[in-house]
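Lab notes, practical 5.
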Amino acid sequence: MEIILKTDIKGLGYKNDLVEVKPGYGRNYLIPQGFAVLATGSNKKILAENIKQAAHKAEKIKTEAETTAAALEALTLDIKAKIGDSGKIFGKVTTLQIADALSEKGFDIDRKKISINVPVDGAGEFAAEVDLHREVKTHVNFVVSAE
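Output from the prediction step:
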């Protein structure tokens, strides 16, 4: 089943993408939740017109994302966590903690666009991936230290 996404969905695609999904996923989840519309002929024409009108605005957003990505790569965040005698942390370092640390530095990035790909199990340096735009992904370094 072919659908047009109305919002970014992690692992599936970005807004205004034409994607192929299983019929049950499309009919029972994506379309009723308002995340997608059926890819009919008229909807495809509307999509083409929307993309044509938004091309200039999209280029501006992409350059802003590239500027933010360059600033994030040069940044190292300090995340505080409770660390036991053995060097392991209690709990987890979450994307919410990274998003809060970024907002303290002046970057407004949604926690859903941040992913930590390696397990953070103790103090040290780690990296998180930040998805700023469909074509712009970057890493932000963070140091986990004792509270």
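Observations recorded by the TA: The beta strands are 2-5, 18-20, 36-38, 76-81, 114-115, 124-133, 136-146. The chain has three helices and seven strands.
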